[in-house]
Each structure stands twice: as C-alpha cells, then as structure tokens.
Design a protein that fits this description.
This protein is mainly alpha-helical and about 150 residues long. The chain has helices at about 5-15, 25-35, 40-55, 55-70, 80-95, 115-130, 135-140.
Length: about 150
C-alpha cells in the first residue's frame, strides 16, 4: 500500500464510492492483499479492524468471509494460510470480530484437514501470544463463550 499509516489507508478506502452491497469487495481485496505478502503485515489487521469499527457492515462481511475462508482453507498455500490466520487472529484478539465465528470450527478428525488444523493452530497461537489479548484461556472459559465449547471439546 502506498499509504503511510493504516488510518490514512482507511480514509482513502472509505472515500471510495461503493454501491450498497459492494462492501464485501473491499473486505476481499484487503484479505487478498494480506495473503499475498511474504510475511504477515500487522497493517492489514489494523486496517480490517478499523473498517469493522467504522461500519457494522464490514464486521458482518468479515464474519461471513471467515466462514468462507475456513471452508476453503485447504486450497491455500501454506504462506497464504498463515497470513489469513494471522489476519483473523488480529480481528478476534482485538474484539473487532465477534467470537461466535469460532462456532464454525468443528474439531473432529472427520471435519478437519491438515490445512484447517494448521489454520486453527496459527489462529490460536497468535491470539495467545499477542499483547492485545493477554489471557486466551480466560476468554474461552468465559460464560458467554459456553455456546462455543462443543467444537473444542
């Protein structure tokens, strides 16, 4: 990106005149750019989080996009898979994406592939190691998360 900061990039992105319903294209573009990088750049997570804070539609679109990406994660190369997992980890770890998206993950041998297990591993390792989110275990054991406990049992 040619912008100096994620705030500047956000201003430029939000100044694009989108027709209603085209917001998903912005989410797709952001994640695609993120996945193309050699290593994960926090810039993309910050930008995605800022979009989620600006308009609820972006949060809803990233929620939908999480489900789509997870269902097709086996198609991604390892590096892209890693960047996508780190992107969504950032959104989850900073509470820009609701944690109920994790309910789409089913941790059984039949429901996972080696790619999806790698994705899940990176997702949770990143969330547990970031300074934005200090105690993953506390969060997962929070009473509000009880509806999500079955995929992790």
């Amino acid at each position: 990106m040619s912008s100096a900061t994620y705030e500047e990039a956000g201003h430029k992105l939000l100044s694009i005149k989108l027709e209603p319903g085209q917001e998903m294209e912005l989410c797709i573009m952001l994640l695609e750019c993120c996945s193309q990088e050699r290593t994960y750049l926090r810039f993309y997570g910050l930008k995605g989080g800022a979009l989620c804070m600006k308009k609820k539609i972006y949060q809803e679109n990233f929620n939908t996009f999480f489900v789509q990406q997870y269902s097709m994660i086996h198609r991604l190369e390892t590096n892209k898979l890693r960047n996508v997992a780190k992107f969504f980890s950032h959104l989850l770890g900073t509470d820009k994406l609701p944690w109920h998206v994790l309910s789409y993950i089913r941790l059984t041998e039949e429901d996972t592939t080696s790619s999806s297990r790698i994705f899940i591993e990176i997702l949770f390792q990143e969330m547990s190691s970031t300074s934005e989110f200090d105690n993953l275990n506390e969060r997962l054991n929070d009473p509000s998360m009880q509806g999500l406990s079955s995929p992790f049992s």
